[in-house]
Structure to design on (334 residues):
């Protein structure tokens, strides 16, 4: 595995789709075996035909324009996406700006192998313990019921530290409900950019000390990791229907419905857990600053640019669109 991909996974774990709810962590005895409650059939999302997603936001200064496409996590797994508006914009754009950074680290092959082994150790609960010994019985019972429902055969998840178990449980649940967190929309946009020979721009995140980053990940306090897992459990217990409604609203371009649907603060708890590492916090902050800088630079440099960003980062009260308005840009859109 390339070290850049390895460390991108570390950052990805800190942005898992989890709800923000405070939880008190406590040292617990192993939980008793709990039979999962009877569950209704798993509902799935079925999106038929081509779907355009939301219209673009137009941000301008003078005769220079950035068009912003808001992406969503999760989306229907087998959705066919095609936006004639996006393709038209790309055909006339000078650049397309990706939504996140390219992560890189300069290490040799021997160091990469050592880092991979360190990563594998970091993922696991120390001393070959199990999640049941880290979680209080009630939380472990809730976690086990979800695991039993969405992937009963996954034994490895029991060995993972809570922040990594949270991500794994989330992905299993999405898979079972025909949703996906993979950024297929961005890949489709980049394919269109290549088709029209439009330059693709991304920010970069260079890791000067990847070993130190992984060491700090391994030192995240147990309590805040458990907060992340509990938040994820609550999300998956209560928000599947809303996830599906948001996915369908995005697919048909209904931004008003997206604004009205209750949306959990999906990342704060798990980002806060990862950000107890000073290096991880610095990387998260740098990634946000660099994307904002790249956006304004593209707007100043190009007559037309298309940029991608998670839609709730755009439309929130303190989101990208509000910040751009506050800095004097003209913002128009759905």
């Amino acid at each position: 595995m390339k070290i850049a991909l390895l460390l991108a996974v570390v950052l990805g774990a800190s942005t898992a789709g989890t709800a923000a709810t405070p939880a008190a962590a406590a040292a617990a005895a192993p939980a008793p075996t709990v039979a999962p409650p009877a569950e209704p059939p798993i509902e799935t999302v079925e999106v038929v035909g081509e779907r355009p997603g939301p219209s673009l936001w137009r941000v301008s200064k003078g005769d220079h324009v950035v068009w912003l496409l808001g992406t969503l996590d999760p989306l229907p797994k087998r959705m066919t996406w095609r936006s004639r508006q996006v393709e038209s914009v790309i055909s006339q754009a000078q650049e397309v700006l990706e939504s996140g950074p390219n992560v890189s680290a300069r290490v040799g092959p021997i160091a990469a192998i050592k880092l991979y082994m360190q990563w594998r150790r970091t993922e696991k609960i120390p001393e070959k313990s199990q999640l049941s010994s880290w979680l209080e019985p009630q939380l472990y019972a809730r976690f086990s019921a979800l695991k039993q429902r969405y992937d009963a055969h996954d034994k490895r998840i029991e060995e993972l530290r809570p922040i990594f178990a949270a991500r794994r449980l989330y992905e299993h649940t999405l898979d079972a409900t025909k949703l996906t967190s993979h950024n297929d929309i961005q890949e489709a946009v980049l394919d269109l950019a290549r088709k029209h020979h439009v330059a693709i721009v991304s920010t970069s995140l260079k890791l000067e000390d990847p070993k130190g980053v992984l060491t700090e990940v391994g030192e995240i306090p147990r309590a805040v990791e458990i907060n992340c897992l509990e938040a994820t459990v609550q999300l998956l217990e209560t928000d599947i229907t809303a996830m599906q409604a948001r996915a369908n609203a995005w697919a048909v371009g209904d931004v008003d419905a997206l604004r009205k649907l209750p949306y959990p603060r999906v990342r704060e708890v798990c980002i806060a857990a990862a950000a107890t590492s000073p290096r991880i916090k610095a990387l998260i902050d740098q990634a946000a600053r660099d994307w904002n800088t790249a956006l304004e630079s593209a707007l100043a440099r190009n007559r037309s640019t298309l940029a991608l960003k998670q839609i709730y980062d755009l439309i929130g009260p303190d989101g990208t669109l509000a910040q751009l308005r506050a800095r004097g840009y003209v913002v128009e859109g759905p």
